[in-house]
Design a protein that fits this description.
Number of helices: 2
Strand content: 35-45%
Number of strands: 8
Structural class: mainly beta
Order of helices and strands: EEEHHEEEEE
Shape: globular
Oligomer: single chain
Radius of gyration: 14 Å
């Protein structure tokens, strides 16, 4: 299990996967929905920040993206299913603005 929390947006993520299983899940719990570009500059280059902001512009959840490390692409978090590499991500909107992401390894 892994987890993270951002103090500015008050958004947390909890990622769970059992050893030996081809499935896992992530839960995103939102509070304020604030994006701090100043904070992003500590971690990302300007080009990456621009790509992230363009990806989430006018989306329901602007403070969270999914990153495909193989293809160096950002995806907005929106309800539905997205395939990234060998993984299928089923994204389900829950109560109070929270999201659950069900992750399943696929053979392609």
């Amino acid at each position: 299990m892994n987890f993270g929390y951002d103090e500015i947006s008050q958004t947390s993520i909890r990622i769970t996967k059992s050893p030996g299983q081809s499935e896992g899940s992530a839960v995103v719990q939102r509070e304020r929905g604030i994006v701090s570009v100043q904070r992003m500059k500590k971690v990302f280059c300007d080009e990456c920040i621009e790509k992230i902001l363009n990806t989430v512009q006018n989306k329901l959840l602007e403070e969270f993206v999914i990153f495909d490390a193989d293809n160096k692409l950002f995806y907005p978090l929106s309800e539905g299913t997205v395939k990234i590499g060998r993984y299928a991500l089923e994204i389900v909107y829950g109560s109070y603005g929270n999201y659950e992401i069900r992750i399943k390894y696929t053979e392609e």
